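Box S2. Input/output pair 1.
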Amino acid sequence: MQQNGSSGSNGSDGCSRERQAPSFSPLPAATTRVRRFIQERRTLPLPRVMVVFSAAEDTEKPSDAMSSSDSTEDDFRKPATPSPNLTLSKPLRSTLDTQEQEFPEVISLNVGGMYFTTRLSTLRRYEDTMLAAMFSGRHYIPHDAEGRFFIDRDGTYFGDILNFLREGELPHRDRVRAVHREAQYYAIGPLLDSLEDIQPLTGEKVRQAFLDLLPYYKDNLERIVEIAKLRAMHKKARFAKLKICVYKEEMPITPYERPLFNSLRFERSDSETKLFEHHCEVDVSFGPWEAVADVYDLLHCIVSDLAERGITAEQQCIGVCDKHLINHYYCKRPIYEFKITWW
């Protein structure tokens, strides 16, 4: 009886476990959510673009215990996995690229706080310019509070830029340099070519051709400014004086040799040349060079370039080096005194 009872008891327990087993089987959370969506007859959300760009090897692999129970969830993930030959980002990018911005026929501009109005065709007059690229529709242009297209640039000479684009009008001579800088910024090649063919830029090109013979010219100009500043600060003075040697001939010569000097280059042998090598006792030295331009032309360049920096410079010849070299030869390079006034 006890065996039957025990067996009957065991049998009832076995039946009970068989009936209760399905209710205690572990279900993954994802399967529960899927079933809940099905019961509520709700539509599963479509996968977002972020899922498309995730690499296949980066996805986490399900554990062995959950692999069999996640089959239902995998069925919903498979449609979202892109094929190797399919890229969803390309059509999206191409669609964005083809949506070019459209402009009205009349354009209102705000250039550094100055307002201008012109036709769209005027801004697109020359294709290889910055303005044509800006208003091609391929680039974003910010607007000010009034809806005008904003260009973050000083607009003082922008009117001269528009006048050239409209009818080829060139600025007045005193505005040529400034407009030339603006034309460089906006990359307007035809305007640059036109400005460089008129004064003062034409004269500047000729002048620069002469200064190119003196590759040290800019460095020497910087030395003049630096020495004059240090001396004025040291003496607590309003001005400073410098001695500058400016000579055109390659070799120092005596007055007796000058009648025989028939070329721009005075020829001597290498051994004789070493006898005449020396440095004049000056602060800065310019020369020699081979050109028609003479010493006074170079002095004018030095004074005018200092004036461009707002530095007042006066010069006068105070004699020659007159250093004895050999026999009856003396250095006859002219020495100039420069007075640099700071205020």
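Box S3. Input/output pair 2.
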Amino acid sequence: MNLAICVAIAPRAFLQIQVPRTERTQRQLFVMTGGTPPKRSPLWIGTHSGTFHCDEVVACFMLKNLPEYQNAEIFRSRDDKALREKCDIIVDVGGEYDHAKKWYDHHQKTFTETFKSVCPDVSEDFNVVRLSSAGLVYSHYGERVIQSILQREKGIQLSPENLKLAFIQIYRNFISELDAIDNGVPMFEGGEPVYKVSTHLSARIGKLNPSWQETGVDIEQRFQKAMEIAGREFVENVLEVACSWIAARDHVRAALEEAKNVYPTGEILVLKTFCPWKAHLADLEKEYNVEGVPKLVVFNDGTSYRVAGVPVTPSSFLGRKFLPTPWRGLRDDDLSEKAGIKDLVFVHHSGFIGGAKTEEAAMALAIKSIEWPEEQ
């Protein structure tokens, strides 16, 4: 059914225009007796109507963070002909992926693209999960989206090198999850999980769809709300990676580059500024071709100096080199006497970390631990 909108073209004179219901849901209907109608957006982003999902919600949000689509409106439909005639870019619908035409669907049987296949410079680790519409849009426009958000939120721009790092990290810890969930990729092979995670972003966005008991719901308003929620989390992730994660990586990089000046073998790293270091060190070891070499990290955690063992993997409880067994579980004077080092505070009973009052004491603890005979 079509509705008539009265648009004023002269005082008390009206032109009747027929507007499809699908368009009415995208724009407020105005009955005006004077003046001019609201300016229409020159561009349209198309996606499917009905139940929405996190991947196209995030895809639309990312596009609206690009200057050319900032004021674009969203047209939701499953009519491929209407979408292609009306829209400048289409995501998650249409049965075709064609970057030249700006069509980004992933549901067709022939679709096999991954982050690695679209962005060949990234690691082989990203060649497993097929992209969703979020991953497709991110692969093609993500770097520009990141810079746009950082310019708006913080007034900064990343160097090309750091932009590439942020681009990969944001895919790793935000977009890849959306791709995997939308494509039904299990987190592990074999058997059913012993519990279900129902509070992740995709689940929360899904719950914004009208329930089977709700009637008279404006699903287009729900879609806008979904974009706000998902968009806020995406922006927070971009800011965390660009303003915190990259800065931490720079600190760890500096420590790794100075390692042989600290101790000739490069087995002891000194972090001048405390920051999350385990995952960064694992990555940077590969970049510098020193995998497995660093054994201990010295840093000040804000209260005292620490000597921590480097784990075999960032999440492992097993270390490459822990502090000597005879010192474990001891504290203060007992520890200092046993180790022959002044100003020690403690060594954990498992040996993965120890503390000292001064940097000199922490360094002595680290050096003696490195030189301690291998324990069987």
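Caption for Box S3: The chain is about 40% helix and 15% strand. The radius of gyration is 28 Å.
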